[in-house]
Amino acid sequence: MLVGATFLHTVKSGIKTPKIHGVPAKVPVVSKEDKERVERLQQGLADGSLKQGQIDCPKCLHRCCVALIKDVEVDICPRCRSIWFDKNELSTYLLARKDVPGDIYHSRLSKYSCPHCIKPMREFCFINPHNLLVDKCEQCEGVFLEEGELDRAVRLNEKQQ
Ligand SMILES: [Zn+2]
Ligand SMILES: [Zn+2]
Questions:
Q1: Under a CB-based contact definition with an 8 Å cutoff, are residues 11 and 68 in contact?
Q2: Cα of 120 vs its chain's centroid, Å
Q3: How many whole angstroms from 63 Cα to the centroid of ligand 1?
Q4: Strand partners, 23
Q5: Which of 27, 57, 132, 157 could form a disulfide with 77 if both were Cys (CB 3.0 to 4.6 A apart)?
Q6: How confident is the model at residue 115 (pLDDT cuts 50, 70, 90)?
Q7: Which of the ligands is closest to the CA of residue 119?
Q8: In angstroms, how far is the first alpha carbon of the chain from the final one?
Q9: Ligand number nearest to the C-alpha of 139
């Protein structure tokens, strides 16, 4: 899903020039509907009009906002742009089989705590052996992605399929 690949990039830099890693996309990768959605989200993050969520960002402890990306309602931090996915939300977003395919491999303790369970999460390779590390709560199985990690997860997931 190319739309997903450019999601955070477009949130950050505006929708006029869809680019992946600075390389102009050959084809328009953002549909009109998604453009409008990203514009609304960007606007909401900027002016604080997004609905406030129930959790604090595991990274900067700012209260998250609730936002719809594609058809998945996630918690996004308006300050550091991290995103929290409840169980099964990331796989729904990625159209993947599992939230974190690499979670069967070894992990280490994360420096962040789950915003629901208030327990340290664990850090896993998103897809073995790629070096994208993501935080996942072993108890509620939510996944925490810092800014830029969703784009990388989308690309790794596409390669995998
Ligand atoms: Zn944050
Ligand atoms: Zn949890």
A1: no
A2: 19
A3: 8
A4: 20
A5: 57
A6: very high
A7: 2
A8: 11
A9: 2
Distances in Å between the Cα of 84 and the Cα atoms of 26, 30, 58, 149 are: 31, 23, 9, 11
Beta-carbon neighbour count of residue 83 at 10 Å? 26
Tokens 């509620």, residue located: 140
Distance (Å) of CA 12 to CA 40, 42, 110, 118, 158: 13, 8, 26, 29, 22
pTM: 0.78
Ligand 1 mean position to 53 CA, how many Å?
Answer: 13
**And the tokens for 5?**
């690949």
Handedness of CA 68, 73, 79, 80 (dihedral sign): negative
Q: Domain ranges for the chain, please list them.
A: 2-160
pLDDT digits (tens, 9 = 90+) for 131-152: 899 999 999 999 999 999 999 9
CA of 113 to the centre of ligand 2 (A): 8
